[in-house]
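Slide 14.
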Amino acid sequence: MLKFSLPIALALTIVAGCTHVDPNKARPVTLNRAETKVLTKAVTHDFGNPKNVAFRNLRVRDNYYPDGTVIRSVCGEIKGQGIVGGEDGFLGFTRNFENGRWVVPVIGQPCW
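Slide 15: predicted structure.
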């Protein structure tokens, strides 16, 4: 078990270092109406009744990476009915705006 844990920990450390956001440059932003509409559609896609979804604690910011890349990210909490009709409590979510669409980040990006 230990011989597998060390390489995995090392790989995760390297990957985490490659995705470091510069905290001094990151800044909060406000989404415009069009961005909000596209985000809402992307996030509520898997809910049984997307019009009955509630959001809270939304935070939006532009993240600046050392290589010059800027990625807008949103995190917050969402609540609604699932496809089978049961209602869940508020669940956390994160989305990045990349290549013209909202996507789930590939690597864990903390909700600050």
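Speaker note: Residues 16 and 107 are 8 Å apart (CA to CA).
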